[in-house]
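Input sequence (151 aa), recorded before submission:
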Amino acid sequence: MANAEHLHSAGSSLGYSTTNSGYTLLTDLKKVHAPPLDRNDSKDTSLDSANMFEQSTPGWRKVGAATFEVYLTRAQFAALQTIYNLNSISAVYYWQLTVPKLSTESAASNLVWQGYVKTLALSEGSTDTDDKYAVTVTITGSYGYTWTQGS
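Predicted structure, token format:
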């Protein structure tokens, strides 16, 4: 495809916020698996369904889990652990993945969703520096999924 510009991960950033503004960035992002959009099947089968075929229609939408690996400072890890330890609706944060702008755009693209920290794991020790940990974090999506395309 000539002149097609694809999404690229280099330069992406990930942040969290309680208010969907003023995001706290998690620096040194290593890998991201953005949350998938998923939909349950609505079971519409009855005992008199034609030819004994199961019938279904699109059901409720849901946001899947996002997983990312990041090198964190001690303070960043402590902040995520504080969020993880919350046990109520206050544990649901806004998460924003920013994808760098393309050469034809003046603004970056953003994916915003709400979710809570489900897992927080020190996944890799690093000998490169003494102030960062490689951490794997899973965010379970709880509501919303908004893609804003760069312009």
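Checked by second reader. The chain has one domain: 13-39+57-148.
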